[in-house]
Every structure is written in C-alpha cells, then in structure tokens.
Write a structure and sequence with these properties.
Number of helices: 9
Order of helices and strands: HHHHHHHHHEEEEEEEEEEEEE
CATH topology of the largest domain: serine acetyltransferase, domain 1
Radius of gyration: 18 Å
Distance between the termini: 54 Å
Strand order of the largest sheet: 1-4-7-10-13
CATH architecture of the largest domain: Orthogonal Bundle
CATH class of the largest domain: Mainly Alpha
Structural class: alpha/beta
Helix content: 40-55%
Strand content: 5-15%
Oligomer: single chain
Largest sheet: 5 strands, parallel
C-alpha cells in the first residue's frame, strides 16, 4: 500500500507544479528525478532502468543523451559515438535542450494520458523522435549531412517517424502517438503545435525548392491529416482527422 501511495504522490507532484514555476532553472529536472525515485520504489524490477536512464545522471542533457544514444545506435555506429555527437550538439547549442524541456511541459499539459513529466522523457517515442530530429537538424546546419541522414533513418526504423533533418521545428511541440508522422524538407512548424499520428506535411510531387507546408503557432493537426504543398496554416487553426489540405488556411 505504501508503494502505491508513493506513486500517486509522484503524479500529484507533477500536477501541483504549474508551467510558470517550472521555468525556474533546474526545477523541471528536479521534478523528473523526484518522480523517478518514487517510480523506482514502486516498481523495483525496473530500478536498473530508472537509475540508468535518470538517477545516475546529474543533468537533464546527460540523461537525454543517454536515452537517445541507447535507442539510435546500430552495429556500425556505437551508442558511445552517438552520445558524444548528441552532447556536442547540446554544448554548442543550448537552445536544443531548452526546446526539449518545453516539449516535455507541452506534452504534460496537453496530453490527457500523460500525468507526469517523467513519462514522456522515459517512454514516449514521439518525444524521443522529436529530440532526435533536433540533433539531426543541428548536424544538417553544420554540413554533416550524412550523419543527419543516419539519424533520420534510425528515427524512421525505430519510431515510424520520418522527418527530414532540414525541416524547421519550433518549441513546445507534442507528437501524440507519432506513428506514421512525415514532415518534409522545407516544412516550417512554429511553437506550440500538436501533431496526432499519421500527419503528413508533404509536397505535391511536382514542385522543387520551397514545397512543404508552413504551420503557425498553436495549430492542432488531427490524426492522418495530409497537408501538401507550400501552403500556410494560420495560428490557432484546427485541422480535422483525415483532412486533405491543399490551400492556405488563414
């Protein structure tokens, strides 16, 4: 009974910290660690997983680089090499880890199935795919295209998410379920956009150059929505599930 009470307290810990309070330096990481300590007490069989993923790390970037590297490695590119690349990206561009923190808060706030900050960090493939793309995007803009494509390929195989490394993504994004999500090379997504599974931001097939959708702030893209071409979706728009959009939406 004590363990079940502890886990409930972990959820309440997250619920009682609003987004404004969590902007204080280090607070989100402290919240995640607190939750995971309670999870480890509640589920001892997963203690090694919780310690390896979270509790053995001093910083959020250290933990996230470990989690991503353990997923994105392959027989020919080791997890150690992948982790070094990710840590280099975080060191050179701290905005990448800041974006990850905002993504966690967005998922906790908008996904009714998410009752803690540690849940997406540990378990949501949409969050992991989004963070992998942020690294691939950094590699792309540092002219390391082959490595960026490697990240894209691994994301596709592991998570069923295909995002071109050159695509520009804002902060506070939520990839709910994420399976089948496709975002093309010249797509641009502003902050606070929510994606459900199966969304495509693609080209029409007969264009070159700037040929993918531009998504404004606070847009919601329903499951299996298909948006094609260099179109603009205005701030706050809601695109219904299964929609096919070929023209601008103000």
């Amino acid at each position: 009974m004590q363990n079940r009470i502890s886990l409930r307290h972990a959820d309440e810990f997250s619920a009682n910290h609003n987004i404004q309070e969590l902007h204080a330096a280090g607070t989100l990481w402290q919240a995640i660690r607190h939750e995971v300590k309670l999870r480890a007490d509640f589920e001892p069989i997963m203690s090694t997983f919780f310690h390896g993923s979270i509790l053995n790390h001093e910083t959020i970037e250290g933990a996230l680089s470990f989690i991503l590297a353990s997923k994105l490695d392959s027989p020919v590119v080791s997890s150690m090499a992948i982790r070094e690349i990710i840590e280099q990206a975080y060191a050179c561009d701290p905005s990448i880890i800041h974006a990850a923190e905002i993504d966690i808060k967005a998922t906790r706030e908008r996904d009714p199935a998410c009752n803690s900050f540690s849940t997406p960090f540990l378990f949501y493939k949409g969050f992991h795919a989004l963070q992998a793309q942020r690294i691939a995007h950094w590699l792309w803009h540092n002219d390391r295209h082959s490595l960026a494509f490697y990240f894209q390929s691994q994301m596709n195989m592991l998570f069923g998410v295909d995002i071109h490394p050159a695509a520009t993504l804002g902060c506070g994004l939520m990839f709910d379920h994420a399976t089948g999500l496709v975002i093309g090379e010249t797509a641009h997504v502003e902050d606070d956009v929510s994606f459900f599974h199966g969304v495509t931001l693609g080209g029409t097939g007969d264009e070159r150059g700037d040929r993918h959708p531009k998504i404004g702030r606070n847009v919601l893209l329903g499951a299996n929505a298909t948006l094609l071409g260099n179109i603009h979706i205005g701030e706050g728009s809601k695109i219904g599930a299964g929609s096919v959009v070929l023209q601008d939406i103000p």
